[in-house]
Structures
1.
Amino acid sequence: MAKELKELTPRSESYTQWYQDLVIKADLAENSAVRGCMVIKPYGYAIWEKMQRQLDDMFKETGHMNAYFPLFIPKSFLSREADHVEGFAKECAVVTHYRLKANPDGDGVVVDPQAKLEEELIVRPTSETIIWNTYKNWIQSHRDLPILCNQWANVVRWEMRTRLFLRTAEFLWQEGHTAHATKDEAEEEARRMLDVYATFAEEYMAMPVVRGVKSANERFAGAVDTYTIEALMQDGKALQSGTSHFLGQNFAKAFNVTFADKDGNRDYVWATSWGVSTRLMGALIMTHSDDNGLVLPPKLAPFQVVIVPIYRNEEQLAQIDEKAQQIIAALRAKGISVKYDNSDNKKPGWKFAEYELKGVPVRLAMGARDLENNTVEVARRDTLTKETLSLDNIENTVADLLDDIQKNIFRKALNYRQEHTITVDTYEEFKEKIEEGGFILAHWDGTPETEERIKAETKATIRCIPLAGDTTPGVCMVTGKPSVQRVLFARAY
């Protein structure tokens, strides 16, 4: 039974099927009755909640406050900023009527043709337009700036080829939208939030990222510059894991949002927007997990420790229960989240397999002999190793172990990225190496035409122009024209 519970398609056989198996079997999410949409199950949502809580704290530490804006956006708003509407037009879900009525020809309901909206409403694909229409009423002078708002919401982008967490028609995210008096202030904000995302990814998700700026072809629709963090998954593909956009004055001009500066002169407001989504769940799974199931960083695990009693009779269970409660109290006093599974409907072997599959960082198993010896069996999920340890100061032992697991899985992911990041100088070598997966650093002449050619011929895209690293000029691997610096290429999700 335990083997059946854990049976996953090996990554070496089909990485795509392994991912799908794992999301389903680990109780993270499932497909819904609505095509392209997902149900996030309680265990999966518990991970998202921990992400959300930490990010929310980090946003507030940088001066941001949460607000909420409408789900529906008048169609005319999306026409105000040309690049923006072009970027999202093909993904928009449109509401045309506001009422149903009983079907006159039989059972069920039909759309009431008399209830047609005067203006169609777009189900929020992103909120720049509705927010900047609102900011017009909030901003009159420099004293009203900056506005530092974030909202946690759902969005809809009509995707037909979907994959749980990575790409669904509806997904959850946060989107920050800020307004500033100067260009420098807005650019600083965009870079600051990129750093917040990178810090979260590396310190909490244990996922190393490359910080960079997108090429013109890859930037957000309506942005002047898009900053990004890019991560490398275990199959050698890149995953864009967070973006922060310097929007210039584009949306302020589109919605006529101006302010009076200290000298009384009027100017358009400068803007940013930035966001991460439940796609981070996919990143977390694909960065760390293995053929045995999830591997979760302790800082984001729904519970960091599970205690499983091993007993032959009710008397033994009662004794273990008593000891377990003492351990739980000591662990919780250290801020460690614990689950005690003394349910009698599953054998210990099944429980071990289940919690291994679900990626619980530390498992404690306790039997009658452990009670006699004042010991406990400690298993760590990242290395699948176990040892018997004294219960004396177990809370400090486990705290140190969790810290070591967090660092170890980051180190493992970083080593993987370093081993799969190469530098090439010729297009022939590039075309050969891109088939092997991973990040490739290569020179590019900076033109959209060359970028499009590389994408068409190799399916690789420029993930970013790194903000740190080798900035030595060279020549483009494709055209031989001058190149300012190497850029980061990969095939991507």
2.
Amino acid sequence: MRTLKKYLSVAIFALFAACSGDDSASSNEVESSDAPYSLEASSSSVGSSSSSSEESSSSGMFVVDERDGQVYRTVVIGDQEWMAENLNYDAPNSRCVNDSCKYGRAYTWGSAMDSMGVFSRNGEGCGQGLDCTPAYPVQGLCMKGWHLPDSSEFARLLLTVGGDATASFVLKAENGWPEGENGSDKYGFSAFPTNSFGTYFWSSVGTTDRYAYILLLQDKYDNGNISFDYKKLVNSIRCVKGAASGDTSFIGKLRSPSGKQYVTFGTMTDERDGQTYKTVKINAQTWMAENLNYAYLQPTEDLDSSSWCYDNDPENCKKYGRLYLWSAAMDSATSFSDGGKGHGTFDMYSRENVPTRGVCPDGWHIPTVPEIAELIQVVENKDSLKSSTGWGDGYNGSDHYGFNAIPTGFHSEFHDEFMDSSVYWGEFKGTAFWSTGCSSVAIGETADSDGFVYWDEYVAYSVRCIKDE
């Protein structure tokens, strides 16, 4: 019997368990230090791979870190040039992996961001317990002319190499992994294992004061994805060359004197039932500015319905939209498309983080985790996505972008021979929106209650569709 998830539990490690089988990450925690950065080279060398880089557009390239003289291979994948080895610069709050720097060093997020402002200023003050909004790109601990990748640059890398489903296999090195876990290294990225569950690379984007985005390449599975980790833990760094990707060059420029320079409003009509929804285009993404209210009532194996009005009150559907099980959000019954077929059971590895129409109107789809990550990265913070009314006393947002995230609450529906439970909770306190990946993004009263919640087939959340590009 499965225990129902508690309200807005930011279950990052449960998320890892769903996505990667990781049930403990505490072994990569280091103590904080206020010591200045060392400008001396590390005595350990960086590992390398014998892979051919056959799918990259360039090979045999190198970059020298002038701070300590270390030389790193680089590789061009699509329109991005990446370090093909992990950073090995000796800095506070970092350590060699398993007492060896063969695969570079592992760093806390604050160290990766250069929170002390030694080499650049745009990551200064970013670290554990701090919710910062730096100007991108963030050089962080990377050498001059390179920067710590943001989450959308990781998303672009995944798309370039064929998507999440095979990302780990094609980016992992051909050797160095346990038996049966080596990759093809098709693109010369040469990722080596740095912990018991694969390898994690820091991005420059935090999700809350405690968590930040990572690129996760798994050990036993072919799929890789953008996920999250505690800022106080240590992970590897792969720097990317030059300025941030074109998708994020507008970061920090969204505000104009009118406050709406890169925001465009509109409407769309769902032809299935004639309902009209407000929309908002935030830079390159067009989102529904209201929660979906389509009455998807396909039965599941255990339930009579798979979407609900809060408290079973039809007026709440008008106010909040409907709450959907993940199976309903993905349209597992294939009423509208085949993309979510079979996504109605608790099969954690059947879910590919790719655009899927699901229950959305024609021309729209359930957002992927990278698409949600891009939205969150663009805005100042999640408070700017919250509606300016409707939340508990003192917790209304600024709704700066017209996204209008309202506190819809949640629904749990669980029936078996041991339990018969139908519970509504969280109205005025929080909301969550389904993604096609391993989780749903949660927005709560405070920053501490923001984050990503673990996927559960018995909990119903809201749906915000994003327009097909």
